[in-house]
């Protein structure tokens, strides 16, 4: 799996920031209900129905930078909601990679899949999450896992789905945990002060 390299400010990808390019290619407005689209550029969460939200754009950008997604990676997107993060991840991995979005709410899974399909990135898909466990272990392991709903404790079932040198960014107990798999186990870095809808 090729690496991305990092610029001096910690933003991945070299001269042109790859996360900014993904955000420009897939604007949030395409992943919002019609009555919310006028607010797409506001930097706060917005309702997407079923009691769920489109996350704050600056937080999404920060999480994607922490995840440091290389082209060609196999990625799991837990809580794909509107399909926005799945589309952004698909842009980052490119056609040599793959992205699997899983969403627990059936109405959102169908709507998110339609939003994603409109981006024409056939190497990404969204399926209904299984009710009896986190993620999709039978399709793993994954190089990267993004989680967009908050757990009370580190979701070890998802850590187990990380491949060698894999990385996961997950909201845990009012902060973001960045989990890196190493030959000796895992390392965890914390960034406090982030709230999300609950992981169920
Ligand atoms: C912040 S919202 C949506 C964010 C989404 N990534 C987007 O771009 O719109 C988080 C989503 O996680 C979903 N969710 C919660 N627990 C889940 C679980 N165990 N498996 C899959 N999805 C889950 C919720 O239904 C919700 O749609």
Report what the structure shows:
It is a single chain. The protein is α/β, with parallel strands linked by helices. 22% of the residues lie in helices and 28% in strands. It has helices at residues 18-25, 57-67, 84-93, 106-117, 156-159; strands spanning 46-49, 52-54, 74-78, 98-103, 124-128, 142-147, 162-172, 175-182, 185-192. The strands form 2 sheets. A 7-stranded mixed beta sheet has the order 5-4-3-6-7-8-9. Strand 6, helix 5 and strand 7 form a beta-alpha-beta unit. Helix 1 packs across helix 3. Bound molecules: S-adenosylmethionine. The site of S-adenosylmethionine has 25 residues, from strand 2, helix 3 and strand 4.
Small-molecule binders here are:
S-adenosylmethionine
Task: Kindly report how far apart the N and C termini lie.
Answer: 32 Å
Percent of residues in helices: 10-25%
Poorly predicted tracts of residues: 1-15
- What is the topology, as strand order, of the major beta sheet? 5-4-3-6-7-8-9
* Percentage of residues in strands: 25-35%
State the shape. Answer: globular
Overall mean confidence score, pLDDT: 93
Structural class computed from helices and strand pairing: alpha/beta
| Element-level helix/strand string | HEEHEHEHEEHEEE
**Biggest β-sheet, characterized?**
7 strands, mixed
Number of DSSP helices? 5
Total DSSP E strands: 9
Structural Rg: 15 Å
Short description:
This protein has helices spanning 18-25, 57-67, 84-93, 106-117, 156-159; strands spanning 46-49, 52-54, 74-78, 98-103, 124-128, 142-147, 162-172, 175-182, 185-192. It has 200 residues and is of the alpha/beta class. The chain is globular.
């Amino acid at each position: 799996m090729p690496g991305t390299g990092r610029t001096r400010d910690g933003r991945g990808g070299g001269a042109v920031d790859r996360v900014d390019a993904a955000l420009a290619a897939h604007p949030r407005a395409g992943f919002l209900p019609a009555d919310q689209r006028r607010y797409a550029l506001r930097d706060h969460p917005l309702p997407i129905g079923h009691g769920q939200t489109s996350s704050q754009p600056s937080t999404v950008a920060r999480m994607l930078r922490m995840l440091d997604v290389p082209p060609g990676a196999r990625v799991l997107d837990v809580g794909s909601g509107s399909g926005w993060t799945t589309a952004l991840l698909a842009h980052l991995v490119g056609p040599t990679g793959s992205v699997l979005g899983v969403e627990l709410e059936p109405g959102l899974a169908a709507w998110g899949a339609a939003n994603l399909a409109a981006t024409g990135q056939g190497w990404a898909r969204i399926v209904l999450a299984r009710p009896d466990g986190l993620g999709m272990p039978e399709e793993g392991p994954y190089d990267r896992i993004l989680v967009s709903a908050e757990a009370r404790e580190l979701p070890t079932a998802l850590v187990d789905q990380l491949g060698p040198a894999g990385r996961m960014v997950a909201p845990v107990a009012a902060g973001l945990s960045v989990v890196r798999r190493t030959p000796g186990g895992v390392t965890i870095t914390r960034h406090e002060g982030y709230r999300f809808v609950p992981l169920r």
